[in-house]
Amino acid sequence: MLAIRRNIISFLRAQMKSQIVIFCLLFSLTAALSDVTIPEGVSVSATRNVDIISQLVKVSTEYEIKNQGKTELNFFVHAIPEGEATRLAYIGAKENKKDAAILKISKTGVNGAPKGFAFYKIELNHLVGVGASVNLVVEYVVTKYLKPYPAEITQAENQFILYEGDALVSSAYPVEKETSHFKIGTGKLVSHTQTNGKHVGDKITYGPFTDQKPYSEKKISIHYENNSPFLVAVEVERWIEVSHWGNIAIEEKIEVVHKGAKLKGPFSRIDYQMDRRGPKQPSIKSWRTILPAAAKDIYYRDQIGNISTSIVNAKHDATDVELRPRFPLFGGWRTNYVLGYNVPSYEFIFSSGSDYALKIRLVDHLWDNSVIENLRVKIVLPETSRSIKVAQPYSVKRLPDEIHKTYLDTTGRPVIVLEKQNVVENHVQPITVYYEFDRIYLLREPLIAVAAFLILFIAVIIFVRLDFSISSDPAADTKSAHIKKD
């Protein structure tokens, strides 16, 4: 019996091992099939512009892609150094011509590529024939990449930043000619890698370099003055409440932190007022938020109460709100506030019969060169809304729907919950929420209110008509007796 059991156990173990091996082979085969192979005979020329004058690293690369191979070309692979890719917030591509459409981009792998790079496959709108070429522009934004150096400064000192990157364009293709321009602003340049580098005005230029092999690297560092605000919204909760009675209420709860060089030593209000550097101080006095042009009933408050130092400037296409906190923000300091407003629903809701579409921005422009670490958006639709779908221009995580109950609600209003991390200005784009709603339900709450008041009035009438006294009134009894005798 023991021998039989051992044989059975050995057989089962062998079966499990074979299944695991088959699964691993299938997984490896699937991964290999998803990777792309760089076609032979394709080369590029590139001009790269790297903007590092704010807290963001903004990279724009213009490619001339030449197809000298044997087959038509229908995609292009853009490479990003792994150190930047882990902090990538946004990437977009289009042809380098007027009114060009945004091209589809997906993350991929490249067969035979070395480690240290991330790859993004760009689908071309048309085939590039043998001997032909196409011009592309690829833009991407990286957050939390620039390092304050030194990490701590006093109130009177300026902020200096260290950038470490590459003088060469990361490329999976041979590069015939390339040049990189780094925009650093007009502040003091402490040091930079000088190999083939020229500093003129507010730019450092590396190149031109010719005949570079794929995946070539030339590491550089730039240490420069950068007093721009490193203001980061660590948490943003955006509440959008939709009403078909003509109004959409929007409220944002925002927690912000200055993530530049931390303040070392005490803070002096007198020295701060006497500081003549003005906007070049590494502190934040105020910031400008851009709201929709139709925004009204704007309020701005914190935990203490209303903050009256905001300035609203209504323009033709937008409403600018200058927000000034109760104290300036130095490195490491934080504050939180609530900003709310109303907009008319007819500008954002479109309908055809019982089909509705809400087209509204996922997030507003908080301030210039903003970074949002965690964004959560809750969209409250009218009660009885159904068949809800969300269309977004980029990847957004949709959490399970919630229910919100307020005055005169019975079943509650459906709440769509969306979440996204590492949000930048490029994400200030509208999303569309499709849903169905029967217009007859617009009368639901008014009828409930009318019925409630009617029941209340009837109850009051009945109440005043009833006699709740325990003993009878002698005078009333005598009067009624006289009436009977007569």
TrEMBL record:
GO terms for cellular component: oligosaccharyltransferase complex. The keyword Ribosomal protein does not apply. GO terms for biological process: protein N-linked glycosylation via asparagine. This is Dolichyl-diphosphooligosaccharide--protein glycosyltransferase subunit 1. Belongs to the OST1 family. Subunit of the oligosaccharyl transferase (OST) complex that catalyzes the initial transfer of a defined glycan (Glc(3)Man(9)GlcNAc(2) in eukaryotes) from the lipid carrier dolichol-pyrophosphate to an asparagine residue within an Asn-X-Ser/Thr consensus motif in nascent polypeptide chains, the first step in protein N-glycosylation. N-glycosylation occurs cotranslationally and the complex associates with the Sec61 complex at the channel-forming translocon complex that mediates protein translocation across the endoplasmic reticulum (ER). All subunits are required for a maximal enzyme activity. InterPro entries: Ribophorin_I. Residues 1-32 form the signal peptide. Pathway: Protein modification; protein glycosylation. It comes from the Eukaryota. Component of the oligosaccharyltransferase (OST) complex. It holds the Pfam family Ribophorin_I. Keywords: Endoplasmic reticulum, Membrane, Signal, Transmembrane, Transmembrane helix. It is found in: Endoplasmic reticulum membrane. It comes from Acrobeloides nanus. The chain crosses the membrane at residues 447-466. It is a single-pass type I membrane protein.
